[in-house]
Amino acid sequence: MRIELKTEIPGPRSRALMEQRRAAVARGPFHGTPIFVAKAHGAVIEDVDGNRLLDFASGIAVTNLGHTPEDVVRAVQTQAERFLHTSFNVVPYEGYVALCERLNRITPGAFAKKAFLANSGAEAVENAVKIARAHTKRQGVVVFDHAFHGRTYLAMTMTSKVGYRQGFAPFVPEVYRTPFPYAYRSPEPDASAWAMREFSELVLHHVGANNVAAVVIELVLGEGGFIDAPAAFVRELASFCKAHGIVLIVDEIQTGFGRTGKLFACEHYGVEPDLVTLAKGLGSGLPISAVVGRAEIMDAPVEGAIGGTFGGNPVACAAALAVLDRFEADGGALLKRIHAVGETIGARLFAWKERFPIIGEVRGIGPMRAIELVKDPHTREPDKASAQALAKYCYQHGVVVLGAGTYGNVIRLAPPLTLEDTELDEGLVVLEAGLAELGRSA
Predict the structure, then answer these.
(1) What integer best gives the mean pLDDT of the chain?
(2) 276 neighbors 125 (Cβ within 8 angstroms)
């Protein structure tokens, strides 16, 4: 058993630190789990009170290889002893170039590519839009309902959920939103056809295709609740963008590096985006992000137009190269293991749906799975209170999970992809018990 609870959750030391946090830290940051971590390894977090919890959140789908993977830690230590920072814009270094070469090789697309490194997912998104605008000489950006692309101003404007934008208007102009093919809540039986009609109407008749620089899409919505886009819709969207000279940007920030069972979600769809944005799992916990794509598009900004003091930090590059080494080792054995993890999670969740009426839908791809909770399976009214209660039950019983969804009624599972079968089972047992408790209290 990995879970070991010595105190109530949160324990006394975590509660004391939370009081200090309230006095010293701005109100804005939210905490899904009210404990303070002391150390973490693999799939286990140990808090400051000595409690051991299974982590099914991975720092929001970041620690795909688990906490403190030995090979990544060694790479970080080695680089930290050589140099910490020079700024690639002042004195460049080999690690930045080596990482770009690797990303150019492994990202989908049988064409010449180039890459650019930054610090965060939001930075990657904003730079991808800048690059697309420079290439097309157009301004418009089309995004989708339920999307999350970051919290900086352009990325926040592109993000759908009102809670992330409350009080921050006015927003960046020339950003247009269209429905995502959310089959469970689609007003028509064929969600793909409906969403494509809405998209075409917007672009062709309200914005003008010749005014659209880029379409940005998450193939599996992250914060939106792990909703996977239908393949037919994605293929038609890609064809539309190609026909109208629109840059197709696929946001793989949360889906990348094995989260869907393949290295990139694009591989499930057979699409080759013009640009792809990466972050989260790329650095295994160190802040690094990337934009990778067609060389002629990536080269559109003039020299000096994109960059930053810390982008592609040498220590973060070393971590990312070690992450890529892991995925390429032993003929891709890690991805085979990740596929098995996804099969196990999917089977358990679908079994729960048959047992618990509160589960309206089970969805996702590979290990990237979620359950949407509803008050009534016929009306499909979202049940945010139950999602919050389930997340609380889980952490009080030793499992960290993430809420999600525009309506706050989704529990998403994002465990380290390297966790053991016994750890996966132990965590899922707690989740199942929480669902049973909700059923008894209904």
Answers:
(1) 97
(2) no
Cα(283)–Cα(333) distance, integer angstroms: 20
Alpha-carbon gap, residue 52 to 357, rounded angstroms: 31
Phi, psi torsion values for 312, nearest 5 degrees: 65, 40
Residue 331: the pLDDT is: 87
What are the strands of the beta sheet with 402-404, ordered from one edge? Answer: 359-365, 368-373, 410-413, 402-404
In degrees, rounded to 5, the angle at the alpha carbon of residue 413 between the alpha carbons of residues 333 and 224 is 115
pLDDT, residue 440, reads 79
Interval 181-212: pLDDT, tens: 999 999 999 999 999 999 999 999 999 999 99
ω before 92 within 30° of 0 (cis)? Answer: no
Residues 50 and 63: their CA atoms lie apart, in Å, by 21
Q: Which two tokens stand for residue 428?
A: 């899922």
Residue at 234: amino acid letter: V
Are 188 and 195 in contact by the 8 Å Cβ rule? The answer is: no
Give the chain's length. Answer: 442
**Which amino acid, one-letter code, is at 391?**
A
The residues with which 228 forms a beta bridge, in sequence order, are 220
**pLDDT attached to residue 48:** 98
Kindly write down the DSSP assignment for every residue of 107-127, as one continuous string: SS-SS-EEEEEESSHHHHHHH
Answer whether residue 442 shows pLDDT above 70.
no
Give the Cα separation of 293 and 273 in Å (integer). Answer: 8
Task: Identify the residue whose tokens are 């819709």.
Answer: 233
User: What span, in angstroms and rounded, lies between the C-alpha atoms of 109 and 359?
Assistant: 38
CA 131, CA 302: separation in Å to the nearest integer? 10
For 89, residues 6+ apart whose C-beta sits below 8 A from its C-beta are 307, 308, 309
Contacts of 32 (CB under 8 A, 6+ apart): 57, 391, 400, 402, 403
For residue 300, CA distances in Å to 135, 372, 427 come to 5, 42, 47
β-bridge mates for residue 289, sequence order:
118
